[in-house]
C-alpha cells in the first residue's frame, strides 16, 4: 500500500487542493482595473438608484387624474408650464390641468404622478393634448433598483462586466478584491513542442499550456508561464525552481503509470503526496502534493483530461465556488463506471443534451465543439428522456 490516499472523490480532491492554497490578503483596487477579480467584502449601496423619482420615457409629466379618460377622440388638454431634463430638473410644482415636458431619466416634479409618451401626444407649444391616459407605471420611484445601505454585491463574487458596472452604480471608485493567486504552469514531456516550430512524427504541440493559461486568466489568477520540461527529473526540477513567488505549481503530463512519468516520481520521492488518482473520467491520474514547500497539482497530459480536471477540481478550489450546473433532458444515453464520476462532452440543442460522440481524452475538438460537461455520478446510467446535470463551460 502506498503511504498516501489513492482514488479520492472529486469533492475530496477539490477540498485537499483548497486546503493547500494560501489565504489571500484583500487589496483595494481602482474599479477600472478590477474586472475579473473576486470581491473580498460585501458592498452596500452608497446611494439610492434611481437617486430621485424620474420618468422612464420621453413625453410629458402630469397628474394621472387629469387624463384618466383621454383618447384620440376625447384628448385631455393640459397647459405646458415647463420642462425637466436629466440633469436639469423642473423646480416648480405641476398643478391640476398642467403638464411639463419630461425626458427619460429626468426627475419627476412635485404634483405630477404619471407620464404620457411623445407618441401619444399633440404638442402646440403652449398646450399638449394627451391621446391616451398618462401612466403612473412609467414613473421610476427613487430607490426602486436599490436603496442606500442595501447590500447589493457579495464577497466571493467575481467581478463580471455587469458587476463592475453595478459597483460603479453603487458609488465605489475602488473595490476590495482578493489579491490574485500566482500560479506557475508547466507542461512536461519529451514530445511536447511549442507551436511555430516544425513537428516531427510522434511530437505534439503544447496545447495544454495555452488552454491552462487561458483558464487561469479566466479565474483572475496571475500566471507564471514556465513553458515545457522534458521527461528528466533534474530538468523538471530546474524548471519548477523558476516559479519564484508562485502560490501553486500546475503541471500537465507525467502523472500516470509510465516509467517516464516524472511529475509523479518527483512528488513521491522528493515531496509529499496528498493524493494520487481521482475517481473521475477523464483525468483519473491527477496528483496533488507539496514539493519544496509549494503545493503542486499534476494534471494528466491528455489535453481533454487536463482541461476537464481544471474545470471540475482546480477551478472550484481556486475560486471557492463549486461549478454551477443546469438540469437538462438527455437526448442520448450516458453512463459512468461503478467507481468513477464521468464528465461527458455533450452538445446542448433545444433544451436537451446529447453525447458529442468522440469522447477520447486526446480529442480537444470534443471540448471546443461541445463545451458542456454532462455529469454522471459513480455507478449511474441515464436513459434518453431522463434529466441530467450539465456544466456549461464558456
Ligand atoms: N497503464 C496505464 N496507462 C495509462 C493510464 C493507466 O491508468 N494505466 N491512465 C491513462 C490516462 S486516463 C491518462 S489521462 C494518461 C495520463 O498520462 P500522463 O499524465 O502521464 O500524461 P503523458 O503520458 O505525459 O501524456 C499523455 C498524452 O497527452 C499528450 N500530452 C502531454 N502533454 C501535452 C501537452 N502539453 N500538450 C498536448 N498534448 C500533451 C501526450 O503526448 C500523450 O499523448 O495516461 C494514460 N495511461
Ligand atoms: O482520463 Mo485519461 O484522462 O482517460 O485519458
UniProtKB/TrEMBL annotation:
GO terms for biological process: Mo-molybdopterin cofactor biosynthetic process. Keywords: Magnesium, Metal-binding, Molybdenum, Molybdenum cofactor biosynthesis, Transferase. GO terms for cellular component: cytosol. Its cofactor is Mg(2+). This is Molybdopterin molybdenumtransferase. Catalyzes the insertion of molybdate into adenylated molybdopterin with the concomitant release of AMP. It catalyses: adenylyl-molybdopterin + molybdate = Mo-molybdopterin + AMP + H(+). Residues 184-320 form the MoaB/Mog domain. Pathway: Cofactor biosynthesis; molybdopterin biosynthesis. CDD domains: MoeA (cd00887). One of its GO terms (molecular function) is molybdopterin molybdotransferase activity. Its EC number is 2.10.1.1. The lineage of its organism: Bacteria, Thermotogati, Deinococcota, Deinococci, Deinococcales.
Amino acid at each position: 500500500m502506498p503511504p498516501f490516499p489513492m482514488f479520492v472523490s472529486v469533492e475530496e480532491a477539490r477540498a485537499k487542493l483548497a486546503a493547500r492554497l494560501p489565504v489571500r490578503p484583500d487589496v483595494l483596487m481602482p474599479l477600472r482595473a478590477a474586472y475579473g477579480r473576486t470581491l473580498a467584502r460585501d458592498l452596500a449601496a452608497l446611494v439610492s438608484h434611481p437617486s430621485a423619482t424620474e420618468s422612464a420615457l420621453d413625453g410629458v409629466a402630469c397628474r394621472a387624474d387629469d387624463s384618466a379618460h383621454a383618447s384620440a377622440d376625447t384628448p385631455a388638454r393640459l397647459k405646458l408650464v415647463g420642462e425637466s431634463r436629466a440633469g436639469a430638473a423642473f423646480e416648480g410644482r405641476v398643478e391640476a390641468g398642467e403638464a411639463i415636458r419630461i425626458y427619460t431619466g429626468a426627475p419627476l416634479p412635485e404634483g405630477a404622478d404619471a407620464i404620457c409618451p411623445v407618441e401619444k401626444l399633440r404638442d402646440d407649444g403652449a398646450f399638449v393634448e394627451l391621446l391616451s391616459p398618462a401612466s403612473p407605471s412609467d414613473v421610476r420611484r427613487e430607490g426602486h433598483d436599490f436603496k442606500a445601505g442595501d447590500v447589493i454585491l457579495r464577497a466571493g463574487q467575481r467581478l463580471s462586466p455587469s458587476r463592475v458596472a453595478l459597483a460603479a452604480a453603487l458609488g465605489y471608485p475602488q473595490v476590495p478584491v482578493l489579491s490574485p493567486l500566482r500560479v506557475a504552469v508547466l507542461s512536461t514531456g519529451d514530445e511536447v513542442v511549442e507551436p511555430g516550430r516544425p513537428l516531427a512524427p510522434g511530437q505534439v504541440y503544447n496545447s495544454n499550456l495555452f488552454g491552462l493559461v487561458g483558464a487561469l486568466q479566466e479565474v483572475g489568477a496571475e500566471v507564471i508561464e514556465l513553458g515545457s520540461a522534458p521527461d528528466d527529473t533534474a530538468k523538471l526540477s530546474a524548471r519548477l525552481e523558476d516559479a519564484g513567488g508562485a502560490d501553486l505549481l500546475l503541471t500537465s503530463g507525467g502523472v500516470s503509470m509510465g516509467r517516464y512519468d516524472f511529475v509523479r516520481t518527483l512528488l513521491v520521492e522528493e515531496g509529499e503526496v496528498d493524493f494520487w488518482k481521482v475517481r473521475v473520467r477523464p483525468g483519473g491520474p491527477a496528483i496533488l502534493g507539496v514539493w519544496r514547500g509549494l503545493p503542486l497539482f499534476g494534471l494528466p497530459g491528455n489535453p481533454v483530461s487536463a482541461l476537464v480536471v481544471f474545470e471540475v477540481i482546480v477551478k472550484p478550489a481556486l475560486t471557492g465556488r463549486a461549478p454551477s450546473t443546469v438540469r437538462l433532458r438527455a437526448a442520448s444515453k450516458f453512463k459512468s463506471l461503478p467507481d468513477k464520476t464521468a464528465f461527458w462532452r455533450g452538445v446542448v440543442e433545444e433544451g436537451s443534451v446529447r453525447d458529442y460522440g468522440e469522447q477520447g481524452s486526446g480529442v480537444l475538438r470534443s471540448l471546443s465543439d461541445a463545451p458542456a460537461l454532462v455529469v454522471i455520478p459513480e455507478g449511474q446510467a441515464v436513459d434518453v428522456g431522463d434529466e441530467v446535470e450539465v456544466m456549461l463551460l464558456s
